[in-house]
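Lay summary. Proteins are chains of building blocks that fold into shapes, and those shapes determine what they do. In this project we predict the shape from the chain. Here is one chain we studied, written as its sequence of building blocks.
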Amino acid sequence: MPGLPPAQDEAGVIAEIRTNVVFEKMIASVLTVAGFSAAAHFLIALALRLSANALSLAGLGSLV
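And here is the predicted shape, written in a compact code that computers can read:
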């Protein structure tokens, strides 16, 4: 049929599309892991700060 690329070109295009899909999935998974890691670090830092504040307030109360 006129206007259609040869089969070899189609195979190359299909392989390139598959490569792009795999790459995009890899990027999405890396960003997901980075997001979960950032959230975990934030929650740990928040818990440490709250516990430090609670301990310092408890220490101030014992001085009075």
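What the prediction tells us: The helical segments are 7-63.
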